[in-house]
């Protein structure tokens, strides 16, 4: 299992597929606290990657797409844009909402 400092370190040192490009520790901690408050047992990075994959699975390119996924009893809303270049998908998650709290993410996943 990867911890948040490792994740931020990997993210800061990588720019390729499968990593979050500009994610920072402060945002991670805010999301982690909100997950705890809402009894979401999954790790932050796991949920963000799941949301990115679900947005990509919709198959809609170059348009903002919304979806809602449930984690336990909590619903997480995500809005993002999927693009494809040279056969590889990239997902920009613009924002997520957990309960009534919204987070501006504006980072790429996948």
Features:
single chain, alpha+beta, 4-stranded antiparallel sheet, 4 strands, 36% strand
What's the rounded overall pLDDT mean? 83
Radius of gyration over all CA atoms, rounded? 13 Å
Binned strand content: 35-45%
Distance between the termini: 19 Å
Task: Sum up the overall morphology in one term.
Answer: globular
Number of helical segments with 4 or more residues: 3
Q: List low-confidence stretches.
A: 1-21
Structural class: alpha+beta
Helix proportion: 25-40%
Work out the number of β strands.
Answer: 4
The description of the largest β-sheet is: 4 strands, antiparallel
How are helices and strands ordered from N to C?
HHHEEEE
Strand order of the largest sheet: 1-2-3-4
Description:
- By secondary structure, this protein is an alpha+beta fold.
- The protein has helices at 4-13, 25-37, 44-57, and strands at 64-71, 74-85, 88-98, 101-109.
- It has a four-stranded antiparallel β-sheet with strand order 1-2-3-4.
- Strand 1 and strand 2 form a beta hairpin.
- Residues 1-21 have low confidence and may be disordered.
The gist of it:
This protein is α+β, with helices and mostly antiparallel strands. Helix content is about 35%, strand content about 35%.
Secondary structure elements and their pairing?
Layout: H1 4-13, H2 25-37, H3 44-57, E1 64-71, E2 74-85, E3 88-98, E4 101-109
Antiparallel strand pairs: 1-2, 2-3, 3-4
């Amino acid at each position: 299992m990867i911890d948040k400092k490792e994740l931020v370190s990997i993210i800061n040192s990588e720019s390729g597929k499968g990593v979050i490009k500009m994610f920072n520790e402060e945002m991670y901690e805010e999301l982690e606290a909100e997950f705890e408050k809402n009894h979401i047992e999954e790790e932050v990075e796991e949920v963000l990657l799941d949301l990115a994959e679900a947005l990509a699975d919709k198959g809609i390119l170059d348009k903002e797409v919304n979806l809602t996924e449930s984690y336990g009893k909590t619903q997480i809303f995500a809005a993002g844009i999927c693009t494809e270049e040279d056969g590889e998908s990239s997902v920009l998650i613009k924002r997520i909402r957990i309960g009534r709290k919204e987070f501006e993410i504006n980072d790429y996943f996948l």
